[in-house]
Specification:
There is one protein chain. This protein is 34% helix and 17% strand. The protein has a domain of 262 residues: NAD(P)-binding Rossmann-like Domain (Rossmann fold), CATH 3.40.50.720. The strands form five sheets. Strands 3-4-7-11 form a four-stranded parallel β-sheet, with helices on both faces. Strands 2-1-14 form a three-stranded mixed β-sheet. The chain has a three-stranded mixed β-sheet with strand order 8-10-12. It has 13 helices and 14 strands. The chain has 424 residues and is α/β, with parallel strands linked by helices. Helix 4 runs parallel beside helix 6, helix 8 packs across helix 12 and helix 10 crosses helix 12. Strand 5 and strand 6 form a beta hairpin.
Length: 424
Amino acid sequence: MAQYLTARGHQVAGIDAGFRREWVAEMGGRSALPVASLEARLDAFESARGTRPHVVQGDLTDRDVVYRLFEEARPEAIVHLGECPSAPYSMIDADHAIWVQRNNIEGTMNVLYAMRDLAPEAHLVKLGTMGEYGTPNLDIPEGFFEIEYRGRRDRLPFPRQAGSWYHWSKVHDSNNVMFACRIFGLRATDVMQGVVYGTRFFGSSADHPADPELHTRLDFDQAFGTALNRFCCQSVIGEPLTLFGLGNQRRGFLPICDSMQCLTLAVDNPPEAGDYRVFNQFEETYTISELASKVAAVASEMGLDPRIRRIENPRKEMEEHHYNPDHDHLLALGYQPTRDMDSEIRAMLEDLLPHHDRVAAKRDVLLPDIRWDGSRRKSTFLDGSNGAGPEEAAGEPSSVDEPEAGAADVDHAVVAEAAPLTRG
């Protein structure tokens, strides 16, 4: 995000605690694409862009650190990506559930109070998740809907039906941001983001950073690897593309380049003071079986041998449901979806193939063992084998895996200024 905004003339500062690396390591995984140290990435950033972002290594739950950064940067916009973005991680046990709630909610509260005290005119672009809504048997609006009850009408926040402790932390964040706008007169855009995938955040090979130290991370473990990222990694190392359960769960998805485009549109088009608005951010909805078929088709064209198989669903969720969310606001601001998932998948596979051994060495993290009932047990294949038995045809999957609606690949957070300014 920092690279994307800088390339468009913004001056960027940030805060990073390095938590993402710790969480992934705890899950036994690592990024499929090598990720350099923060200092090395900043050096590469400066070499490529001619400017070095002001980055504080610190924790958003530390109010003194947050206030210090606001005093130094005086931001005009804050892009808040600094939360733990994993449903499975939050479901491991009580310690993880409580930690995720405290980290996410307390960090956002510190940002809101720092805005009130030091940057009241700034615009908060807060990354939420489509997972806040759950899967109601209704079309999903963008945050609010009109309701009539007992002869009276009102415009109210659409009810949330989150499916994990992580998703409930995001619901609480949304409520807190909405309340802060009302009482402090802040302005905020709450971005309900679908599942992000991809490796090329500028959207074209020509713009993709040449220096590998500027590439984004791509996780594939059960807690931080989203479904399509995981499918691509599985294809590269010859593992089955694993679908959770028997259902046809449908979710919204968008490539990382589209996520960067949408977040920048939000930054560049702030609401009025006191206004809390909600954008549903996704390109299109798919069942995970449809995604697996797409990955399998592209992988086959590239000479790989993808297989699609079903495994036990470790989650408690509806596997057959209605899902029709709105996403008009960003389109009205000028969002232009790439709408070429096959090209995105091909680019991902091209970027992953040179790191085959890096992924293969961590293949054990691909099969989930975190279960929504609090136990830990590896999911088994639904054909009754351990992975060497009959396989489903690549074009005929019959089940889906519901991924967590995760944030863009960052370690902690980015505070971005909406226009260049001079710091004292």
